[in-house]
Amino acid sequence: MGGEVRQLLEQIHRFSRRCLFRVLSMGPLPTHLAFIMDGNRRYAKKRGLEDGSGHKAGFSTLMSMLQYCYELGIKYVTIYAFSIDNFRRKPEEVQSLMDLMLEKIKSLLDKESIVHEYGIRVYFIGNLGLLNDQVRAAAEEVMKATAKNSRVVLLVCVAYNSTDEIVQAVKRSCVDKADRDTERIQLVDIEENMQMSVAPEPDILIRSSGETRLSNFLLWQTGNSQLFSLDALWPEIGLRHLVWAILNFQRSHSYLEKRKKQL
Amino acid sequence: MISLRVPAPSSFNLQRFNSGALERRWKLGRDCFLSFTPNRIGLGVRSTKSEMAPFTAAEEETLPEGLQPELMPKHVAVIMDGNGRWAKNQGLQPWDGHRAGVEALREIVELCGKWGIQVLTVFAFSTDNWIRPKIEIDFLLSLFERTLKSELETLAKNNVRISIIGDSSKLPKSLLKVINEVEEVTKNNTRLQLIVAVGYSGKYDVLQACRGIAQRVKDGEIDVEEIDEILIEQELETNVTEFPYPDLLIRTSGELRVSNFLLWQLAYTELFFAQEMWPDFGRNGFVEALMSFQQRQRRFGGRKS
């Protein structure tokens, strides 16, 4: 009996969400959303749970967000999973994060996973050489397995720093233009060598847990993105936050489009 | 900080109007004697005498209540946005807004000098701003030139060093001459470094750093493998200062974006978005931004413990 009620409630939620999304779609929708998923550990502490469960709760929030983005028709989602700076944390925490990542990355290969259900293409962006062999191999396997998907693109930034991305792009630009006039190096030369060039620039960047800073994430790509700093911790982020962000985006959208046309 | 409540559309803030803005408008009327005539033939703006009082040692110590001296940021960056909208709200012309903006900037420079902030970077003119109407651009650049000339003496006396960063290739020759002169005269000053970004954008800065590095690689001075973050940092135009990374970035006028200002340097900068327009920002807004900054926990990717 309980199971049926739950199913019914789930269907009602899904239906009302579909209506809400249909209303939202009347206005312009962002093409690319980026998330800094901050606050997992604070969430675990707040709830009196053990350390690892904060990240697990964060992962399920991420899956919900992906589902909403898919239902809304938002094509690109980028997430900041692990920064190069995070390697400086205690080895036990880094190891447990790597283990969790390995587990979740492998789960993406399952036939029933959200990746296959929604046709998500997954990219792992970052200095993958810094990861241990198992995680790197799993990441490469997922990238290969989802290469044909095209409905949604999920970019997972792991072992990533924006400054590191720029350094790699500068290196490649120097090599490409080594035999030509260096004054001829243009912005596009650097941009096409950026790992994130597989996606357009994010329209919105959402950071949870109340911090208002970029923390070396997508510095190059977020020059014109709207930045939202939400007080809620990442596992507490829900549909209402997403809707609020999109409504704000729609409010300033016409002004931005005018500016873009002028440029 | 952005809360869940949808922010109100930015409109005229009565509180701010009464604190300083009225005085600014009066000064404006005095200085821009063509502001209120219907037929504008030209822009007759009298050059103003600087109203900045000389810094005194006593004033240096008094921080407003609530601010702690040991938590003051070393480098503050400001996007002075909203001059045009402020002018429109007041029923004035855009150039009146820019003039009011200069007054507001004077106030902030003075406060930075008094409160021990060592570097202040302001975003005066972006590479994107070249699309504005020519008359506005001409006014902005001539306002900038006039302000530099008239402020030089005061700044030199108050031990302020000025540096200009940005793509100078499109700037008029007379302005370039004044810039060189001002930079030369103030280059040994130590109390506050004021960096003015004119014709600047973050991507442009990284691009010119990349070109510089590519040239060095081509000349055989460095190897491609040696290119790292420190090398790029040294090539960026913000290498004019010892503290190229702002601790705090303030943007006025309620826009929630960075608009391509200081890209690389903002990696760990705390961002503060103020609702009021730049001419209304003033001391109160600045104190609010500093208080917000002092309450933040900066971890740089690590953990608090």
UniProtKB/TrEMBL annotation, chain A:
The protein's name in its UniProt record: Alkyl transferase
Cofactor: Mg(2+)
EC number in record: 2.5.1.-
GO CC annotation terms, alphabetical: endoplasmic reticulum
Gene Ontology terms, MF aspect: transferase activity, transferring alkyl or aryl (other than methyl) groups
Protein source organism: Brassica napus (Rape)
Family statement drawn from the similarity comment of this UniProt entry: Belongs to the UPP synthase family.
CDD domains in the cross-refs: Cis_IPPS
Enzyme class name: transferase
TrEMBL record, chain B:
Pathway(s) served: Protein modification; protein glycosylation
Top-rank taxon: Eukaryota
Family the UniProt entry places it in: Belongs to the UPP synthase family.
GO cellular component: chloroplast stroma
This enzyme's EC code(s): 2.5.1.-
Purpose of the protein: Catalyzes cis-prenyl chain elongation to produce the polyprenyl backbone of dolichol, a glycosyl carrier-lipid required for the biosynthesis of several classes of glycoprotein.
Gene3D superfamilies: Decaprenyl diphosphate synthase-like
NCBIfam families noted in UniProt: uppS
Alphabetical GO biological process terms: plastid membrane organization; polyprenol biosynthetic process; response to cold
Key words, A-Z: Transferase
Lineage, opening ranks: Eukaryota, Viridiplantae, Streptophyta, Embryophyta, Tracheophyta
Cofactor(s) listed in the protein's UniProt record: Mg(2+)
PROSITE patterns membership: UPP_SYNTHASE
The protein's name in its UniProt record: Alkyl transferase
GO molecular function, one term: transferase activity, transferring alkyl or aryl (other than methyl) groups
Signal peptide: none
InterPro entries: UPP_synth-like, UPP_synth-like_CS, UPP_synth-like_sf
Membrane-crossing segments per the record: none
